[in-house]
Write a structure and sequence with these properties.
Shape of chain A: globular
Shape of chain B: flat
Bound molecules: adenosine-5'-triphosphate, magnesium ion
Mean pLDDT of chain B: 85
Structural class of chain B: mainly alpha
Number of helices of chain A: 12
Strand content of chain A: 15-25%
Radius of gyration of chain B: 23 Å
Largest sheet of chain B: 2 strands, antiparallel
Distance between the termini of chain A: 51 Å
Largest sheet of chain A: 6 strands, mixed
Number of strands of chain B: 2
Distance between the termini of chain B: 47 Å
Number of helices of chain B: 10
Number of domains of chain B: 1
Mean pLDDT of chain A: 89
Helix content of chain A: 40-55%
Order of helices and strands of chain A: EEEHEEHEHHHHEHEHEEHHHH
Order of helices and strands of chain B: HHHHEEHHHHHH
Number of strands of chain A: 10
Radius of gyration of chain A: 20 Å
Oligomer: heterodimer
Low-confidence stretches of chain B: none
Strand content of chain B: under 5%
Structural class of chain A: alpha/beta
Chain lengths: ~280, ~270
């Protein structure tokens, strides 16, 4: 599905002395099947932005088109939009409520009105995808799992709805490096398998740089820049200016450049850095 | 949605009212509530309403914020109004619809009671809007001190109350978040029969209770880790002082009450 956002503005607590303009004239487009990373500081408006895409928040002004349907229009059935746009909230483990993992994952699909057989198939698929063994976990209470396992259950609950757009708000926040890597790999696999749109929110560019087609940088409620990782790489000085965390490899390359050693290609990941440095060394000898 | 509930919240500000001694504000609120019930006729409203209006204007709390807090009780208000309107008989009959009649006395009582209720709610919420929870606690504790002798655990009561107040906004925020998350999973809180809607609350209430217990646990642990021990010999960061501002407010309150009493005697 394609998503087009035009001049979106959102104000929390409008009219009160402590109102906050969380989004300020945001415009962006996301093409069909695109894997997009949304990055920005804490408080830059990432969560606010994505909650507009399935109609959970209403904008102050601006339009949101999903496949050319304006979802800010009156009379649009938001429940239909929510079936197609799946949203995994920040710290989703706090939304678990059923007495077994299986039932909790089935909550979304059942709300969609699917048959019990179909729901069962989807629960199995989703659990396998997030790396939870059905036999071991299906009957257990979600409250006795570890934080990382709970997170997987919550993610599976949304994946089982088979949304055409999957939005993940900081799915790896607070997890250890292994669980972090597992979840990123799962997203890549899911994207390859289902070709759905994925929007991955993160405050760290390192997480997203390697895997996404496009990066959107948010800063103080505005889109600071957007483009392919290579295009974003060209703006690295501006990104450093606003104090964004950029990939280690990118920082390293910048240090080299400051010393007058230039590399031609964009370097975002460790692997690319290694390749470029090897090339440089070979040239010297 | 749920964030509209302003009950017990604090509205940040630095006005004259915000800076009054909390003890004075608590007493003035109680006095005002009593005053509402010694009102006799429409002229008494001149005093009470102007007092309330002055408090609101000086405090700079926007009217929209105050009215937003009234929304949840509109239904209760409407019910009391209608019951009074139709049940109380006396005076001329204003409207006759067969089995239902509206009399002059009924109409007057209904209006009287509804405005009284609204004023009661507005003024008591003004207390929390303009007083930081911590100040409120200090005020209550200080006022309860004389009762310590007869075994009232003043400090503990005040502490419990301030923790409860402190967590109202947090729990509302949490409810809002959980509701959004379940909406995203296709939950429907608005349609269907009563039973279906009641069932729809389960996905909100369970996570909410779990997080409330977790929070309570964490808070208790954090307090213990910092050697909190209630009761005697605690000193505080801000000691309460009676200033010229408090004097002005006291005089204003006394004038309002005196006017009401004199008017009542003259009647
Ligand atoms: N429910 C709310 N009520 C009031 N203000 C809010 C609310 N949610 C967010 N804000 C404010 O809006 C701004 C943007 O918040 P948002 O949650 O969108 O940031 P974010 O980019 O997701 O940050 P993080 O990385 O910490 O999740 C912040 O200044 C925040 O304080
Ligand atoms: Mg966020």
């Amino acid at each position: 599905m394609s998503i087009r956002i035009e001049n979106l503005t959102h104000i929390y607590n409008k009219g009160l002395s402590y109102e906050t303009k969380a989004l300020d004239d945001v415009s962006l487009t996301i093409e069909d099947k695109e894997f997009v990373g949304i990055i920005g500081h804490t408080g830059s408006g990432k969560s606010t932005l994505i909650q507009h895409i399935n109609g959970i928040l209403k904008p102050e002004s601006g339009r949101i088109y999903i496949n050319d349907t304006d979802i800010t229009e009156k009379g649009v059935k938001l429940s239909d939009i929510r079936k197609r746009v799946g949203l995994v909230f920040q710290y989703p483990e706090y939304q678990l409520f059923e007495d077994t993992v299986e039932k909790d994952i089935a909550f979304g699909p059942l709300n969609m009105g699917l048959s019990p057989e179909e729901v069962d198939v989807r629960v199995h698929e989703a659990m396998e995808l997030v790396g939870l063994d059905h036999e071991e976990f299906a009957g257990r209470s979600p409250f006795e799992l570890s934080g990382g396992q709970k997170r997987r259950v919550a993610i599976a609950g949304v994946i089982a709805m088979k949304p055409e757009v999957l939005i993940m708000d900081e799915p790896t926040a607070g997890l250890d490096p292994k669980a972090h890597k597992d979840i990123v790999e799962m997203l890549v696999k899911l994207h390859r398998m289902t070709e759905c749109n994925i929007l991955l929110v993160s405050h760290n560019m390192e997480d997203v740089a390697e895997i996404v087609d496009k990066i959107i940088v948010m800063h103080r409620g505005k889109v600071f820049s957007q483009g392919s990782p290579a295009e974003i790489y060209k703006e690295r000085d501006r990104l450093l200016d606003i104090g964004l965390e950029v990939p280690q490899a990118m920082l390293f390359m910048k240090k080299l450049e400051d010393r007058g050693i230039f590399v031609e290609n964009n370097v975002m990941t460790m692997d690319e850095a290694v390749r470029e440095i090897e090339k440089l060394l070979r040239k010297r000898t | 949605m749920i964030r509209d509930i302003t009950l017990g919240q604090y509205y940040p500000g630095d006005s004259f009212i915000h800076r009054l001694d909390p003890r004075l504000k608590i007493i003035a609120t109680l006095v005002y509530i009593v005053a509402l019930f010694i009102m006799v006729d429409f002229t008494s409203y001149i005093f009470t309403i102007s007092y309330m209006a002055a408090v609101i204007i000086i405090s700079k709390v926007p009217l929209s914020f105050i009215l937003r807090g009234m929304k949840p009780i509109i239904l209760i208000l409407a019910c009391t109004f209608l019951i009074n309107l139709f049940m109380i008989k006396g005076g001329d009959v204003l409207l006759d619809m067969g089995f239902l009649t509206v009399t002059e006395k009924g109409l007057r009582t209904a209006i009287f009671l509804a405005t009284r209720l609204i004023m009661l709610l507005i003024v008591s919420s003004m207390l929390t809007f303009t007083t930081k929870p911590i100040m409120l606690t200090d005020g209550i504790e200080s006022l309860l001190k004389p009762f310590k002798k007869i075994g009232v655990p003043a400090h503990e009561l005040a502490m419990m109350m301030s923790i409860a107040l402190r967590f109202i906004p947090t729990l509302l925020e949490e409810t809002d978040k959980i509701m959004k998350a379940q909406l995203a999973r296709g939950a429907d809180f608005e349609n269907g029969s009563i039973i279906k809607r009641a069932k729809g609350l389960i996905p909100i209430l369970i996570p909410l209770f779990i997080s409330a217990f977790r929070r309570a646990d964490e808070l208790a642990m954090a307090m213990e880790a910092r050697c909190y021990k209630g009761g005697d010999n605690r000193t505080r960061l801000h000691s309460l002082k009676f200033t010229y501002r408090d004097l002005i407010a006291t005089i204003a309150t006394v004038i309002m009450v005196a006017a009401l009493v004199i008017q009542r005697i003259l009647m």
